[in-house]
Amino acid sequence: MTTVDIGIPKRLVEFTVDGQAVRVPEGSTILDACTAADKDIPTLCYGDTLEPANACRVCMVEVAGSRTLVPSCSRKAEPGMVVHTDSERTRTSRKVVLELLASATDLSTTPGVAEWMAETGADPDRFGPDAATVAQPALVDNELYVRDYGKCILCYKCVDACGEQWQNSFAITVAGRGFDARISTEFSNPLPDSACVYCGNCVEVCPTGALSFKREYDKREDGTWDESRQTATSTICTFCGVGCTLTLHVQDNEIVKVTSPHESSVTHGNLCIKGRFGWQHVQNR
Q1: What is the rounded CA–CA span in Å between residue 181 and residue 17?
Q2: pLDDT tens, position by position, 16-64
Q3: Could you tell me if 204 and 270 are in contact, meaning their C-beta atoms sit under 8 angstroms apart?
Q4: DSSP 3-state of 206
Q5: At what angle do helices 113-120 and 88-104 cross, to 10 degrees?
Q6: Domains of the chain, CATH where assigned
Q7: Segment (H or E) for 249
Q8: Which of 20, 91, 117, 139 is deepest in the core (most CB within 10 A)?
């Protein structure tokens, strides 16, 4: 029996996940319960600071009595529900979704995907080379972050973070339809000419590396990016009195990027341009 720390008292919902009884607070999702039960459910479009977009379909699970598989990131837990996370249906679904994504998108910098594909036996090459998207050069039009849409899976997380869920800048949205759908600024303007305020919150939530720090992009290009040699140190931003927590990622005595803890009650992972990008003066050579 696994029980989740509920904080403010709520009615508990008890149901079964892969034969294991689980109790979670009312309103929790199946994914919340699986996380509490130490069950690894692959996710791409899910963000712990965003409302579920239900776009990637990697986290699908089987619920007894349900005609179709359901997205664990948004399906609320119900009393007596029987959930299977590793059935033949879920494995097949996960395999096909990963194959479709990898056949049309560069997932080389997406954390966890290589392991998921190995576990499911996914083979994107079976769709043939013609399934690949048209090569898209990375958009390097500013000194802060890079947009490499060849890695974009249209998960909508950047749009949500830039929009009404967090920043309210509405600098980016989905343009086009069907196979022509893409993330774009208004009228496809260069980023410096758009409504972007360079908070970098879109970079923070991007699951595939389609958005990345300019410093990270440069180091990946020259082959010197190595997370195993990086350290993460937390500090408090000194630019204003809000008190945002910064996590400095350092490699070879050089800051390579700055993030913020998602569990922080001040930032929830979000920062402004100064907090996320205003660190170059620390290492001005």
Answers
A1: 36
A2: 998 888 888 888 999 999 888 888 899 999 988 999 888 999 999 999 9
A3: yes
A4: coil
A5: 130
A6: 1-132 (3.10.20.740), 145-283 (2.20.25.90)
A7: strand 245-251
A8: 117
Pairing of strands 230-236, 245-251: antiparallel
Dihedral of CA atoms 260, 262, 263, 265 in degrees, nearest 10, equals 70
198-248 pLDDT, tens digit per residue, is 999 999 999 999 999 999 999 999 999 999 999 999 999 999 989 999 999
**DSSP-assigned states of every residue in 26-73:** TT-BHHHHHHHTT-----SS--TTS-----S-TTEEEETT-SS-EETT
Sign of CA dihedral 126, 128, 129, 133: negative
Distances (CA, A) of 230 to 224, 251, 262, 269: 12, 5, 20, 20
Tokens of 186: 């208004």
Q: What are phi and psi of 241, to 5 degrees?
A: -95, 10
Q: Which residue's entry shows tokens 């009228």?
A: 187
b/e for 224-236, b at 16 or more Cβ within 10 A? ebeeeeeeeeeee
Give just the sign of the alpha carbon dihedral 117, 36, 159, 276.
negative
Give the strands of the sheet with 245-251, arranged side by side.
Answer: 230-236, 245-251, 254-259
Whether 35 and 61 have beta carbons less than 8 Å apart is answered as: no
